[in-house]
Structure formats: structure tokens, C-alpha cells
Amino acid sequence: PISKNITCLPLTLANDNITHCLGASDERHMCRIDGAESFPDTRYKCWNETGLHPCVSVDSLCDGEEDCEFGDDEQFCQNDDEDYFPEPCNDLSNGDRTTSHNFLCKLTDANKSRNIYFSLKNAITYPSTVPQLSKAMQKTEMVSKINVDNDRRQNISSSNFYRAWYCNRGIAIRYKHVGQICLCPPSYYGDRCEFQSQRVSVTLQMKASEYRTMIVLVLTLIDYNQQIHSYEQVHYIPFRDCKNKFNVVLLYNIRPKDFLRKYLVRIQAFEKSSFAHRATWLFPIKFPVLPVYRLVKQLVIPADETHTIAKNCPLKCLHGLCQRYINSEDFFCRCDSKWYGVLCDIPYVCQCSFDSRCVGIINNRSICVCPPHKFGPRCLLTRSSCPPSNCHHRGTCIFSDERISQERFVCLCEDGFSGVRCENIQTKIDISFAVDVSIPQALLGHFITVYNDSNPTQLSIYKKVPFNLETVTFHFSDPFHILLTEFDEKFYLAIVQETFTASLHIAVQLTASYRCLPIEEILDATILQFRRLHYVKYYHTLCRKNSDLVCFYDESLMCLCNQDRFANCFNFDRSITYSCSDTNYCTNKGRCFQNSETCQTPLLCVCNECYYGKRCQLSTKGFGLPLDAIIAYQIHPNVPLTSQPTAVKASIAITTVM
């Protein structure tokens, strides 16, 4: 403080509650206690200040005004021109600040991160080289993304405020000589939409076992006589709507409603393409006295209806199938087309098109479920097909909603592609196994993405290893920096890249030398008896003592050894399994896994011994060595005959000759 110059201070004099340096730069806690978090700039302590607030803002240094009692906040400025003052500390440029002034400006805690996040600086890159996506390809993808964004923009014109509020929650239109009239939403009625309707407000979120199948849900408000008061249809596409919520309003057929009746909401799920019935739910209106009843449900749509087919059904369904509601033990008759009633004993004329399905009748009009290429109340309107240019890379075009413009569509992408129009080529990662690593039935890939200003994120994907192959392939569209593989309760480091490299193809081989060891195998058992906060301090020594160690883990951390042989650790969740919502998807006690808790990609079944197939539905149990059981494992699904293994071709030839 006397020389006003920067100098060194003995370590023993720092943080001893005695101010030795100007601004108390050696006693940082003094101003942090005084200024707290509300004033992060108040970090300069005036010399020999004894008042209640001895600290001032660093921006008040060298501003021409003495804010400290002894004026020490202006003594190190050394400005010859009294009318000129250097830039304040909050300015990024140094301006004419002196060296001491610049040093004291750094006392501020403003804009300083309180957290030190995981970084891959000095990390050992593996594999050593990653083929980079060409600049032309990156530019094409960027242009494609921009075009997609531009296509989704809509011009919003200003509206007349009087017309906007004239109809309350409705829309004002001009109708012939009548003048202005109101189009009301279902929840309101009246000349100006001024009255609320008695209604059931339904909010749904769905999960499906197969993410490529379009599901139609028919929601009906019924009474105990099976009379339908109103209905709505919801089109659910799992890969598009997995995080979406659907809001539906169901109205009573009379106003006011009959409070003596009991009402229910019935929801039926059908496949859009085949009309196959998946499930039916029934929810009673528990408080019918309420003018508005809110029903919020999350529905898990099963892969088929086998577990809802009733056994020992007490109902005598004349023209239908007796089934059980998926959410209760009650039975019901699911009627064939052209029949309705509690026992499917009342005929009616189906007014739907010949290639659609009738699922009920309301006010003498049929309720129709249309095939993908049809729409309208009776499925009599034909939808024009999507132009081939809408979806790239052989993507399948699906219209979003039949009630809005056909310009709104979604693309169902093939494996290896992603994006709104399937315009992005996903990174293809081929993982092979060295001779010292056993080939598993399935493995789990943990993709870790590292950020500068937040903690790493983790996305885990299950993959089956194809039979008779020694390579498993992942397709991943998002940036990532670390890939860890897990199988047989072991972890292997597959990829580490400090900077994400957009690549079309990465090939890695899992070797025993890149196995991540559990902490119990490499840290002394005596040290492990310490509290965790104590034995974590020894993690750096593990990388230094074991020159071949690449990574290790404990119950919550995954640690990588960097180039300087220090442990670089991040939080790692080993418990991610994402068990399937549909507990009946895998048969014969197979274990079911999904890649995401919310958006389900194709489900994976890990079968027990003697069982195989997509859902473990096939068995070799009870056989010795029949030819069928041996050949069955060799057959590759979705592969033409010419590309099948030789054993399969030979078996077909012998069978044909015989």
C-alpha cells in the first residue's frame, strides 16, 4: 500500500485477517462477507477503514472522486490530465488503466463462474484420428437446415383489437348480410362466445412400443347405456409426439347435462394402417356435479391386444369380441363394424368408405377411422401423396394433421438419417471386438457430451449384436465427445475427442487394455475404508502409478487419465437402464430395455437361454439338434435371399428338392 506497486507477499501473511495489500487483495473474504452476493463488484477494501461498510465497488477506482476515507482508491492512478479518467473496470478494454488499476479491477466477482465444469483439455484422444466430414457436406447440411427453418416461418399479420375481443375466446367473421358472427371453440357458446360449456377436458400423453407405427385414438364421452354424447380422434405418431400432450374437449349432448346419469370416457387405440385394435381404456367421471371435469392421463399403448382378450368372459357378445379394459378388470364387447350396443346386438348402416372402419354411431352418423390415404368424416376424401422431394434419403412422408394445410408434414427417416426432412446424415459408429474381449449378446453405449458452461450430459442406447457378426453399429445425430460401452458389468472406453468432429463413419475396436477398472480393483482396501471425500484425493495417484490405466470408476464418478497422468472425473450414472413401459412387450420372461425414458426408439429384448426372436417369442426348448433350430439363428431378417448365409440357402435348396 505504500509503494502502490505490485509486489509479492509471503504466503504466511495471506488470509491471516490482517490487511497487508491495497484493497485487501490478500484478505478476499473481508469484502465478500460485507458485500455478499448482492454486490459482486464491491470487493475493494478501503485502507484502515473501520466503518460498517469498508468496501467500495471496483468501478469507483480512479473515477476522480475519493470514496475511501484516506483517498487510497485514487492514489495509484497516476493521471497527469485531471480531466481524463481511465475506462471503468466493467469495460473490456484496458484503456489507460495502470498495471495496479488492472490488477485491482480483477477483485470483482461479477461474471465469474462459481463452478468449474468438466473439461477434456489434455485428454488422450481415442481413436487417434477421426475421419472428418467434408466442408461441402457440412455446408449442404447447413443450407438444408436453413431452408427447413425458413419453410416453417409464418407471416403474422396485425389484427384489429376490437375484432379480437368481440368474440371472447372465439373468432369473428363476416357472414353474408348478417354481418359479424362468432365461431366459438368447443368450450364456449353463445352469440359472442360468452358462456362456458359443460364439458370434459382431457389431456393425454402417450407411449408406444413401436415408434414407427401411427396410432389413432378414438375418445368418446358415453353414459352407462353406451350412448355416445361426443367424440374426438387423436393421431399419434410416436417418433414425433413422444413429448407432446394432446388436449381434447368432449361435450354433453344436452345442455345442461343430466346430473342423474353416470358418464364415462372411453378411449380406443387402433393402428392407422391395418385398423388392428391395440387397447381400450375406461375412465369414469367421478364428480359429475362439476361443470368442467378435467381428466389427465398418460397411456402406455401395448404392442398388441393379446393381454386384453378376456378369458371366461361373462358377456355374451353377439357380433363382437369380449375383451377386458386395460386399466380395470371390467369386461366389454368390442363390436364388429355395423353393430353397436352393450352386447353388440343392434345393427346400423355404416356410412364410412369401404376401405375404412366403423367404430360407433352418434346422431345416426357413423364414426369412421380412415386409412392413411383417406380423410374426412366418412373417409371419402383422398389425400394427395407427398412430393418425393419433401423427405430426403428415402424418408417416408406423413401428413401432420388432416385438418390443416398439406404443407405441414413429418418425415419418418431411415436408420442413419435425422432431421425435419431426414436431411442430416447421422454419424455411423462401428464397434468391433478384439480377441481378448468376449462378444456379448447386447451392449449399452453411453454417449457423453461435454459443455463449457454446464455439466456433461449422458444418453444411453442399447444395441443387440447381430448373430454371426462381430460388429455392432450405432447411429448418432447429436454432438458427443465420449463414448463408453457397457456389457457383462464391464465398461470399455470407445471414443474420446476433445472437440467434436462431424464424421460420416467411425470404426473402433474394443480391447482389454481400454477397459475401465472399478475402483475396488486398483485402490488399496485400507484407503477405501476412509470417507469418500478423503479417498477421492488419491485418484490422481492411480493414473501416475499405473501407466497403462486409461479409465476407472466408482459408484458415481467416471475418471479418465489425461496426458499429464492426472485423473479427470465427471459424474456418471451407472443405473440408467430405462426398463420398458410396456411390461408385456418381451415374451418368455425376456428383459425389455428402451433407449429413452420419454421418447422410445425401437425396444430391445434380451432373451433367456433357448429363446430368440425380436420379442423372444421363438424357442428351441425341448428339442435336441433339429435342423430348424440351427438354421433359425442363421436367418437374417429384412435381408434378401441372395444375401442370406450359405447354410440358409443350402437348407432351402435341400428342402425344395425333397
What's the tally of helices? 11
Task: State the separation between the terminal residues, measured CA to CA.
Answer: 104 Å
Oligomeric state = single chain
Largest sheet: spatial strand order: 28-27-30-31-33-34-35-36
Structural class by secondary-structure content: alpha+beta
| Count of β-strands | 40
How many whole angstroms does the radius of gyration measure?
35 Å
Low-confidence region ranges = 136-158
Structure description:
- The chain folds into five domains: 1-112, no CATH class; 163-388, Sandwich (Immunoglobulin-like), CATH 2.60.40.1120; 389-418, no CATH class; 427-571, no CATH class; 622-658, no CATH class.
- The chain contains eleven helices and 40 strands.
- A hairpin with a 5-residue loop joins strand 35 (557-561) and strand 36.
- The longest helix is centred in the N-terminal third of the chain and has 18 residues, at 135-152.
- The relative contact order is 0.08.
- Mean pLDDT is 82; it is low at 136-158.
Give the topology:
Layout: H1 28-35, E1 42-45, E2 55-57, H2 99-105, H3 135-152, H4 161-166, E3 171-175, E4 179-183, E5 188-189, E6 195-196, E7 199-208, E8 215-223, E9 228-236, H5 238-241, E10 246-251, E11 263-271, E12 277-284, E13 292-301, E14 320-324, E15 331-335, E16 339-340, E17 346-347, E18 357-362, E19 365-369, E20 374-375, E21 381-382, E22 396-399, E23 409-412, E24 417-418, E25 424-425, E26 427-433, E27 442-449, E28 457-464, E29 471-476, E30 482-487, E31 490-496, E32 505-510, E33 515-518, H6 519-522, H7 525-528, H8 532-535, H9 539-545, E34 551-553, E35 557-561, E36 567-571, E37 591-593, E38 604-606, E39 611-612, E40 618-619, H10 627-632, H11 646-657
Parallel strand pairs: 7-13, 26-32, 33-34
Antiparallel strand pairs: 1-2, 3-4, 5-6, 7-10, 8-9, 8-11, 11-12, 14-15, 16-17, 18-19, 20-21, 22-23, 24-25, 26-29, 27-28, 27-30, 30-31, 31-33, 34-35, 35-36, 37-38, 39-40
